[in-house]
Design goal:
Blueprint: E1 2-4, H1 6-12, H2 15-32, E2 40-44, E3 49-58, E4 63-71, E5 85-90, E6 97-102, H3 103-122, E7 129-133, H4 137-149, E8 154-158, H5 162-176, E9 179-182, H6 186-192, E10 195-198, E11 217-220, H7 233-238, E12 239-243, H8 246-252, H9 254-262, E13 270-273, H10 274-278, E14 291-295, H11 300-317, E15 321-322
Parallel strand pairs: 1-6, 7-8, 7-10, 8-9, 10-11, 11-14, 12-13, 12-14
Antiparallel strand pairs: 1-15, 2-3, 3-4, 4-5, 5-6
Helix pairs in contact: 2-3, 2-11, 3-4, 3-11
This protein binds nicotinamide-adenine-dinucleotide.
């Protein structure tokens, strides 16, 4: 079996390539319907955590995977990662495990790829500034993904932890050569952005939806759980909402479920799923003024697609460690 570390995966995966295979996965979903069982969540309340078991199968590319992700927001205080993860890719013909790899990097890349594909359909063409609220691991890749499909001159960032905002700003300046400013508040960043990335571990809305300018595209991928949300009702109500899957969002996203429970919107407020955009069954942005919202809680088939690509590239480039188990 092949073991692939996060640093191996960094050498193997390019965002553009991941976008391509993830788009193919959503086209398969559009044509053939979902083949993957819903993920199973085991809550561990005594440690304020939960562990997600995410199986997925893509018939066309023969990608069969199981990702295991811990969600432990309190880890941040212990200096540990908040979403540790591994992924196992299995040969669908024999059931034999082919590779075990770091799941966190796959998650970051596939989540960013999905966001980028959605932004291609939903964001305005002319973008001056990208706002980032929550400057953690996902945010960095979300930004890199969006930059694949839209150029920008400036980035505004805000995190409740000041040192995180500053570290993020330095990294973006150095690695991407963009102008970056640390915002005074989440509202400050939200009000200045043409595209707004929201990728926090917050269970409470992080900005006031009234500050969003017309024409903004919001990409929200943080806080996964029905009992919390990073977006307020105003943001959701003002937006044309596209989700990764209705099944996932309607069971795990408080961002959408809480406004529904409040009676502020109905399920019909969700415009469509990503598969409808990639298969051109639904239009994305239709005017310069509308506010669009991409809400994602994650989909196993995107993991399967990215993991299969990583495995193929690892074999081509002879990267990784082979072990007998
Ligand atoms: N949709 C998906 O597919 C998907 C995939 C991976 C992770 N996630 C979710 O995305 C979120 C971020 O993940 P991560 O790995 O980047 O975590 P992380 O811990 O690295 O980063 C989260 C950041 O949010 C910041 N934050 C918390 N509350 C805030 C607030 N009120 N205002 C501003 N910033 C705030 C934290 O300080 C932290 O820097 C998590 O909730 C995770 O569950 C979703």
């Amino acid at each position: 079996m092949l073991l692939l570390s996060a640093s191996d995966l960094k050498r193997l995966l390019l965002m553009r390539d991941v976008m391509k295979v993830v788009e193919e996965a959503f086209l398969e979903l559009a044509d053939a319907g979902p083949k993957s069982p819903k993920r199973t969540i085991v809550e561990i309340p005594e440690y304020n955590g939960s562990v997600l078991f995410m199986p997925a199968y893509l018939q066309r590319s023969k990608s069969l995977s199981l990702k295991v992700v811990g969600v432990y927001p309190g880890n941040i205080k212990r200096g540990l990662e908040t979403t540790p993860s591994i992924l196992c890719l299995i040969d669908p013909e024999t059931g034999i495990p082919l590779t075990v790899m770091d799941g966190k990097y796959i998650t970051a890349m596939r989540t960013a790829a999905m966001t980028a594909i959605a932004a291609e359909h939903l964001a305005r063409r002319n973008v001056e500034s990208i706002g980032v609220i929550g400057a953690g691991v996902q945010a960095e890749y979300q930004l890199k993904g969006i930059l694949e499909v839209r150029g920008a001159k400036r980035v505004y960032v805000y995190d409740v932890l000041v040192e995180r905002s500053q570290r993020f700003a330095e990294k973006v300046r150095e690695e991407l050569g963009l102008m970056v400013q640390v915002g005074e508040s989440a509202n400050d960043v939200a009000s200045k952005a043409d595209i707004l990335i929201v990728a926090t571990t917050s269970k409470q809305p992080v900005f006031d939806g009234r500050v969003l300018a017309k024409g903004v595209h919001v990409a929200s991928i943080g806080w996964v759980g029905a009992d919390g949300r990073e977006l307020d009702t105003t943001t959701v109500k003002r937006s044309k909402v596209v989700v990764d899957t209705k099944e996932g969002v309607l069971s795990e996203s408080g961002d959408i479920l809480i406004p529904i429970r409040e009676g502020a919107i109905t399920v019909d407020h969700i415009w469509c799923e990503l598969k409808d955009l990639v298969s051109n069954r639904k239009k994305g942005r239709e005017s310069e003024e509308e506010i669009t919202l991409w809400k994602s809680v994650g989909v196993g088939v995107a993991d399967a697609a990215a993991a299969k690509l990583a495995y193929q590239k690892a074999q081509e480039k002879q990267i990784g460690l082979w072990v007998e188990i």
